[in-house]
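Just curious: can you write whichever protein you like plus the matching structure tokens?

***
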Amino acid sequence: MARIEIYSTAVCPYCVAAKNFLAERGQTFEEHRIDRDPARRDEMLRRSNQRRTVPQIFIDDVHVGGFDDLVALDRAGRLAPMLAGEGGR
């Protein structure tokens, strides 16, 4: 199973949607709350090439992007292989 990380905040509806989307597919994830930990925000910015919006999602250290990007990967048939640990984007 792939390692999934989500950088989020408490009041972000797209963060909730991304977490629900993954949970509906039986996926577990590690959530990093950038509103509670400024160091995590800096980490998110570094890892995501300075993207400031949340969520920022990583699967096995591959930057997926936000919720819309996650859904687009799923619709294109490329998310399932990533979740199975079969490589990057």
User: Anything to note?
Assistant: The chain has one domain: 4-83. Residues 29 and 76 are 22 Å apart (CA to CA).
